[in-house]
Write a structure and sequence with these properties.
Structural class: alpha/beta
Shape: globular
Order of helices and strands: HEHHEHHEEHHHHEEHEHEEEH
Number of strands: 10
Helix content: 40-55%
Radius of gyration: 21 Å
Length: about 350
């Protein structure tokens, strides 16, 4: 607590607005021992924790996010990819529902604490699926993928209900969570802003060689990307900056969120990260960020209420399951010595901030 109070005060003294996230995939082990996110009581534990944070930082932090990318909770209990490494679809669905309940308890606590000049929101990532082929099989994968990822959270929060599609799927598969009376009212309380994490689209296909879905990577038998041709970066990721425009359009037109949007994460990893004469010439990172800012500007020009943009990330850091293998930073970090070196992208982004404008090449 003292560390974060010191950090918040240091930010404020330097004219930097703190934006605090209550949960970014770091559940205490003592709570995991009680079932973690699969235990419905987690909503009450989270509400108690949120109340404490709001009381201690009232008047200091103007922006609060309840959860960051709650789909990662499912990745931990349903897919076994993140901690705690459990692969059980029913538990994964329960964990997702309980995460939504925890979000609702945090919003309720925020209102109860009478937070001064502060706003509360949630950060949900959108990786929109696109069909690689114009056929029923691929279109069905688009529907299933979107419904089981970001729409699983967006519909209850902003529409007050789960979709018929996901309810029927969970009923047929025997993975229906315990949805009690009052749950959806708790989940759908009004929030003040939406945090959008957006990195790319996902091409899906019954033919894994036409897909960019990481889940089908092991089935491909041609190049690393799974697709011949196309606009790909050197690290194998497709370059599709319009994905931010598409996500903003979906939020405004399909979900009708009617609140401001902040791009809370956007960035790219491993863009020629080798030190050459003490410098890192990460030209593709500049190209990537520039493209996403350009399409964000297009959305704003057409009336989207986008208030801010955050690069992921300031410095190379520990990227969860990827460890130190993926460098996202504007600042190069020597893992052994902790020495920090500005990459070319950092100098470029400094100029973007100073101008508050992107010069499109």
């Amino acid at each position: 607590m003292d560390f974060y109070k010191g950090l918040v005060n240091e930010l404020l003294e330097n004219g930097i607005t703190p934006n605090a996230t209550l949960y970014h995939w770091d559940l205490p082990q003592v709570l995991e021992n009680k079932g973690g996110w699969t235990n419905r009581d987690v909503k009450d534990w989270f509400g108690e924790y949120a109340s404490l944070m709001f009381r201690e930082f009232n008047g200091l932090v103007p922006m609060w996010s309840t959860l960051n990318e709650p789909i990662a909770i499912y990745a931990g209990y349903g897919l076994g990819f993140f901690a705690p490494g459990i692969r059980d679809e029913k538990l994964g669905k329960a964990a997702k529902h309980h995460a939504l309940l925890a979000h609702g308890e945090a919003v309720k606590a925020f209102r109860a604490e009478g937070m001064k000049d502060s706003e509360v929101g949630i950060v949900i990532d959108i990786w929109k699926r696109h069909a690689a082929r114009d056929c029923h099989e691929d279109m069905e994968l688009v529907k299933r993928g979107d419904e089981n990822s970001f729409l699983f959270f967006l519909n209850p929060i902003f529409k007050g209900h789960y979709s018929d599609y996901i309810l029927n799927q969970m009923s047929n598969e025997g993975t229906m969570p315990d949805i009690q009376l009052g749950d959806l009212e708790l989940i759908s309380q009004p929030i003040d802003y939406y945090g959008l994490n957006v990195y790319n689209r996902i091409l899906v296909s019954e033919d894994p060689n036409l897909s960019t879905d990481p889940a089908t990577a092991h089935l491909r038998n041609n190049n690393e990307n799974g697709i011949v041709g196309g606009n790909f970066l050197d690290n194998g990721q497709e370059f599709y900056p319009k994905s931010v425009y598409d996500a903003i359009k979906l939020l405004n037109e399909d979900i009708k969120i009617n609140i401001p949007i902040y791009i809370t994460e956007n960035g790219i990893y491993n863009c020629n990260e080798d030190l050459i004469d003490g410098n890192v010439h990460d030209i593709e990172r500049i190209k990537y960020i520039e493209g996403f800012l350009h399409w964000t500007q297009k959305a704003i020009a057409l009336g989207a209420d986008v208030r801010g943009y955050y690069v992921w990330s300031l410095m190379d850091n520990y990227e969860w399951a990827a460890g130190y293998n993926r460098r996202y930073g504007l600042i190069h970090v020597d893992i052994e010595t902790q020495k920090r070196i500005w990459k070319d992208s950092a100098y470029w982004y400094k100029e973007v901030i100073e101008r508050n404008q992107v010069k499109v090449r």
